[in-house]
């Protein structure tokens, strides 16, 4: 490393309250008594630095002095606590070119610093300020908060590389740039945080678009070689396959709390405004939805999401989701809740597809043991004649009648009813639920035009169009040839 290799100095961080005009030339007869002269002699005198150029300068009070020499723009400084040290080239030229005398003088001689095959040098100015010079980029000062962040990440030989700028004003804050596509950003009254590569590009693009959104932490590694950084509003996530995406605050919070990229992968879109809320798409067919009145976001994926979109998404009749996607207990399906009262749900299964269940039918489903008992819905809500509707689940059907009764028809009773013709059967629609008659082995259900019964002691079921509803009357009807009867073991 040649002596002329040097480091540069950012003006603002080391400026003193003294101007050049307030510094004094030392009397000529005092030169040989100066600690600067002693240092020059110790270094080899003219052979090392050349002859002194001009007078030695003494800052008022005599606590700091310096002199320039003819070789390599070498400057030797002395401070009453720092001692005497030398610097050269870009370091001294930048130091001398300013309009101020600095409070700080070097606390060590200029030393060579290298990053692989890249040659450079460094000089310290106190415990938290250093000038770094590289042949490739020049000389720059790193100080204060930026120095703490820089050193904690390995300095020149770490992930940041060489400084390539002084501290730059950026809006209401500051930026310092480094050779490995890294910057440290700092808002007033806040710590400095580093950000690099495509994450930094995304931050800059937002800033250029008039949407300042400062880092609130340094960037962090994520699974599969990805990165993320927390911002004052949301977070930026990056992966090689998806690029850098900005996710709004509530979505980022919930995304991370639920497992983040390790569980969901990376976002494939920025958070997009939609019906006064936000939608963010992720890999693996997953979307996070955050409604305008919600403090958290909810996720839906795969064919459950397809069903939701087919219903119009947030702008449709379901509105914004009120839960994330969950396994439906007792089945191999999944569900998502909707409605302010959670009175709508999408239920999806591999065998059944996705369907909406809502209102009184959903209430009856929940009161009857939910899908663990009824099974998953096989269709949406369908008409059952001119005045009623019904919804069929794997094991039972729920009817919504004009008289506000909501009966369930299921299992053996439903199978027999469909065999009789279902909606066109002579029994008509169920009026109430199945109930025991006489004993718990003999069950009966009333329909518009009659009754259906199952006797589990003998394993038979049948129906009657008559009004008789006693156990004896029903068994008598079962013996009549005109009545339907089936052995349960054949089912």
Automatic annotation (TrEMBL):
Record keywords, A-Z: Signal
First and last residue of the signal peptide: 1-25
InterPro entries named in the record: LGFP
Protein name: LGFP repeat-containing protein
Annotated organism of origin: Lentzea alba
Organism lineage: Bacteria, Bacillati, Actinomycetota, Actinomycetes, Pseudonocardiales
């Amino acid at each position: 490393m040649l002596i002329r290799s040097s480091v540069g100095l950012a003006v603002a961080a080391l400026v003193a309250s003294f101007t050049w005009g307030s510094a004094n030339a030392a009397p000529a007869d005092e030169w040989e008594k100066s600690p600067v002269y002693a240092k020059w002699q110790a270094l080899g005198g003219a052979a090392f630095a050349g002859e002194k150029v001009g007078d030695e300068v003494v800052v008022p009070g005599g606590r700091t002095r310096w002199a320039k020499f003819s070789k390599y723009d070498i400057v030797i400084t002395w401070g009453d606590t720092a001692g005497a040290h030398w610097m050269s080239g870009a370091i001294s030229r930048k130091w001398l070119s300013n309009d101020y005398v600095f409070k700080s003088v070097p606390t060590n001689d200029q030393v060579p610093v290298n990053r692989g095959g890249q040659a450079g040098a460094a000089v310290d100015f106190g415990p938290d300020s250093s000038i770094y010079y590289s042949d490739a980029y020049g000389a720059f000062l790193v100080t204060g908060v930026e120095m703490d962040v820089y050193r904690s990440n390995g300095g020149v030989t770490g992930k940041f590389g060489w400084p390539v700028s002084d501290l730059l004003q950026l809006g209401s804050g500051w930026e310092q740039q480094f050779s490995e596509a890294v910057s440290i950003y700092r808002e007033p009254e806040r710590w400095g945080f580093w950000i690099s590569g495509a994450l930094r590009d995304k931050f800059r693009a937002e800033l250029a678009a008039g949407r300042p959104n400062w880092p609130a932490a340094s960037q962090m590694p994520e699974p599969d070689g990805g990165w993320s950084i927390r911002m004052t509003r949301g977070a930026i996530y990056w992966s090689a396959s998806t690029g850098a995406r900005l996710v709004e605050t509530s979505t980022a919070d919930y995304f991370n709390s639920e497992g983040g990229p390790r569980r969901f992968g990376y976002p494939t879109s920025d958070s997009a405004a939609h019906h006064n809320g936000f939608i963010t798409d992720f890999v693996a067919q997953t979307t996070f939805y955050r409604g305008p009145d919600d403090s958290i976001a909810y996720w839906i994926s795969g064919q459950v999401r397809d069903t939701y979109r087919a219903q119009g998404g947030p702008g449709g009749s379901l509105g914004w989701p009120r839960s994330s996607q969950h396994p439906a207990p007792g089945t191999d399906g999944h569900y998502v809740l909707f409605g302010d009262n959670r009175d709508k749900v999408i239920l999806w299964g591999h065998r059944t597809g996705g369907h909406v269940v809502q209102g009184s039918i959903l209430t009856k489903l929940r009161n009857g043991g939910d899908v663990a008992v009824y099974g998953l819905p096989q269709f949406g809500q369908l008409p059952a004649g001119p005045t009623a509707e019904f919804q069929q689940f794997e094991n039972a059907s729920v009817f919504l009648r004009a008289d506000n009764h909501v009966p369930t028809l299921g299992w053996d009773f439903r199978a027999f009813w469909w065999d009789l013709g279902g909606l066109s059967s002579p029994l008509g629609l169920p009026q109430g639920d199945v109930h025991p008659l006489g004993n718990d082995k003999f069950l009966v259900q009333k329909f518009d035009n009659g009754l259906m019964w199952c006797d589990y002691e003998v394993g038979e079921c049948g129906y009657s169009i008559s009004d008789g509803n006693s156990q004896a009357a029903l068994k008598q009807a079962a013996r009549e040839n005109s009545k339907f009867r089936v052995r349960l073991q054949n089912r």
